[in-house]
Amino acid sequence: MGKKLASLGLLLLFMLIPTGCWDVKDISNQAFITSIGLDAVSDPDLKGSQYEAKYKVTFEIINQAKLAGPPGEPATIIETIEAPSIGKAVEALQARISKQLTLSHLRVLLVGDKLARGKNFMEPASFFEKSTEVALRIQLMFVQDKEARDVLKIKPRLGKSMSDELVALTEIETNSSLARENPFNSFLLDLRNTGGRALGSRVIVHKDRQILIRNGSAIFNNWKLAGWLGCVETQDANWVTQEAPAVVQGQTEDLFFTYQTEKVKTEIMPEIKQGKPAFRLTIKMTGRVMEEQGKFMDLTRPESMEKITQTISEVVKQNAARAISKSQKELGIDYLGLGQSLQRRYPKEYEKMNWEKVYPGVPVEVNVKCTFGRSGLAR
Amino acid sequence: MNAFGDNSGDDSKHKLDPRVLTAGLIVGIIEFELFSLVDGIIRIAKQDAWICIILGSLIISAAAYLLIRLAARFPGESPFQYGKKIWGKPIAFLLGILYLLYWGGFLALISQDASMANRAFFLKSTPPGIPMLILGIAAVWLAAYGLTAIIRFFQLNLLFLILPLILVFLMAIRNIDLHNFQPVLANGVMPVIKGTLYYLGAMQGFEIILFLGPFLKNVRAAVKPALAGIYTIIVLSLVQLLTVVGIMGTENVEAAIWPGISAISVIQLPGFPVERFELFLTVPWIIGVFTTICLYTYFLVSGITGILGIKKGRGISYFAAAIITLAAYMFPSYAAVLQIRSYYNAVTPVFLYLLPIAALLTAFLRKKRGGRNG
Question: N or C, which end of chain B is more exposed by having fewer CB within 10 Å?
């Protein structure tokens, strides 16, 4: 009898539980924030008060009602709020949106030029790292000369939201060497490993047309934005940092050609010679000739291909050397990660040296091996 | 049948095949800490944490062998029964009380740990006591049927525990950067030794070898199944470490509370229909927590009945569960839980390895052994 009563009691308990719960999450009652743009406040008129606005936070929220709408019509709501913190901005946003806000589908974090220059990046990053909703796979991009809000206000051309387009741009694997790929998690790791140096992704807004361009990169030093690299400079830097496929131009005596690299492998070999660091950089790659201008060569002939690969090797060597020179001589910031390679191989020696002072004078030898070439479908 | 619903002793019809020890160890040891375990080792040994796991595996294997030797020396007897023979009644009683405090404390910790994770990821508004109470009632109900029932339950859940972890690892491989494991031994050997000790302390549930001994058909044949279980856990720990450090890097791991979950949230698989891969960890998480609570409830209640000589264990088990649920609320903050958990990991080797091995040595020196052949 006792067992039967206990079973009945349990049954009643379980009947009560499934009828509803405190945490019901109906998808139609959620407002999904897909992008966040962070900017500096231009005119903080409440200075000194505890409500002093430090961030101008722009949210891109999916408007579910418009998802099935006509193509080319964005299905998003863009809202901007000035607040002392990102958490406060989210709280304030909830007063404007009639559905429960969620960051579980946040895909893009954009940071405006002024904020990135003025604030230690770890401060805004802490909100996203601590959040239990945010997945750390978010793409991080810095907006040159503009505000993050300007990017989110652009009308998407191929997708239903700007976050769709920005994420899609990061997922393209070919011809991606004009841009720096460094998502949120690995950007933070670079900053933490180097004491505030990193190379982040850049986006710009076309000066004449309201379109978005994702190329170039953002240089961080001392946890703040220190400068920008254009697309060509980023392609140069990518020979050292990220093994991205690139289109390379070559010129022999009477032939101009372009070459698509397909596999790129970069090896950085640090050395300590008489107590001083040095580096050997070896870039190995293979690819195919895309087009020719001038006096065409028969690319099925080994000597022609040898000439092509030698020329390409020389061009890539010059590009990589240019990237190193820019980093060492012009800016004096090790955003190429040479110090991290040294730290991995010679941790004790690295600890002893003041890397920031040593870096500009460190010799770097560049070797390029373009081992195989093809001509595509025509000779 | 004993006071706690167990079929032990010479009732050979109900005895278990030694191979069940594999599932018993895997499911018994894995709990929520699998997702945070690497954090503790990495804080100590940084990128050399993998060496700690490999070194730890050697020590754990040797300890498993010695614990089986101890159980085989006293066939058909529970650790509380042969403890009295080895140590004498007063010392055995004292040690028994220490073990009870250890198990009770661990249950409170794991309950609070699970409750916090539940609040963070799943049920934010639900009062945390409700899911924990339901989990606790179910655990006590299962534990009340004895270790044989618990082990059968473990066997049923083994694949549900392991397969999602393997699936997540396969998805993570593409994102792993082996540079994050360099430089090797940059800080010398001491952090590796300390990290190994920490890893040894994370094997709560390992004492199942001693408790399962009386229920096995042939205890001596349990060495291979025990090693199979232990190596599976070690491989899973290594996989977890490889995923976490390989994806996040040691600096980011140190900043995370649950690096196992954070690392999965970094994975990107463009075109894959699912986006939040960390949800794959939900099933292993629930199984891991529930089975550990079952096992430790069993240890605790069989300890109380064994030490105090009480015949009816079921009432005590519900009472103990209620006390532990209340005790879980005593922690002032989650920071305190994490702090106490690290202390627990430091003292765990004493309970899991040192005391049982000391018991074996003492039994050997004092020529103490059980009456029946195992």
Answer: N
